[in-house]
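Structure (tokenized):
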């Protein structure tokens, strides 16, 4: 082995030199690539920071104009296209702000609710007056489901002319679900009548008194006794016990 190394020393030296040069070149390439990636990432971070700062300033300006509303905000042009979305709107729809910009706002609203929204949108552009409490309306999410929102429309003017509409959005899906699941109020039950009332005697209605029967007619006066006749009384004929007839005149006996 030692004899082999001595005879091939030059070959080994050349091979070692090639290996060192290759490794040096590889390290240089990797270092250069890493520096480019770092520079690219740094550039992206700076750009993101600028965009975030710009977005923050724009949102602050819009909220100041809306009276510092705490609801999610979407700003659309008079053509209906979205040109600004607040970060908290993503919590409602699931769409990132950059995914919604330049999209038609009304394509995300249920067709059943478009008529109400179009009416409020058109009037806000025409007279420049806010339209509040629009809805409830359904908005589509990134998962294909719908959430229920309430919205208010505030015209934004430039040189006295409406150029954009700021829409504040408040989700009420949970409130609507709670209202649907709430137990219905039972019909009022009839109050039981207290026993004292149940046993109370019925009022006696006074009946008109019957007229007293008419007094009986007075008995007719007895006929006067006939006057004693002056003619002689006819004798009464009687029979005695022994069968002997007798004539009786008054209390005196004429014959025996």
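Design, position by position:
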């Amino acid at each position: 082995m030692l004899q082999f190394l001595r005879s091939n020393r030059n070959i080994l030296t050349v091979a070692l030199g090639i290996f060192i040069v290759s490794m040096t070149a590889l390290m240089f390439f990797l270092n250069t690539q890493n520096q480019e990636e770092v520079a690219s990432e740094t550039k992206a971070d700076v750009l993101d920071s600028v965009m975030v700062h710009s977005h923050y300033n724009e949102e602050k300006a819009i909220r100041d104009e809306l009276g510092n509303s705490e609801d999610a905000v979407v700003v659309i042009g008079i053509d209906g296209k979205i040109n600004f979305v607040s970060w908290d709107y993503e919590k409602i729809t699931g769409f990132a702000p950059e995914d919604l910009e330049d999209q038609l706002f009304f394509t995300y609203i249920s067709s059943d609710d478009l008529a109400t929204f179009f009416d409020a949108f058109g009037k806000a552009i025409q007279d420049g007056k806010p339209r509040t409490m629009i809805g409830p309306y359904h908005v589509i999410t990134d998962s294909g489901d719908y959430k229920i929102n309430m919205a208010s429309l505030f015209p934004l003017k430039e040189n006295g002319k409406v150029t954009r509409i700021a829409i504040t959005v408040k989700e009420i899906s949970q409130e609507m679900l709670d209202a649907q699941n709430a137990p219905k109020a039972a019909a009022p039950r009839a109050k039981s009548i207290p026993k004292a009332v149940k046993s109370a005697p019925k009022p006696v209605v006074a009946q008109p008194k019957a007229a007293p029967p008419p007094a009986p007619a007075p008995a007719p006066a007895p006929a006067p006794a006939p006057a004693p006749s002056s003619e002689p009384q006819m004798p009464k004929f009687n029979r005695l016990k022994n069968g002997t007839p007798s004539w009786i005149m008054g209390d005196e006996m004429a014959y025996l």
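Reviewer-requested clarification: The radius of gyration is 64 Å. Confidence is low (pLDDT under 50) at residues 237-244, 246-256.
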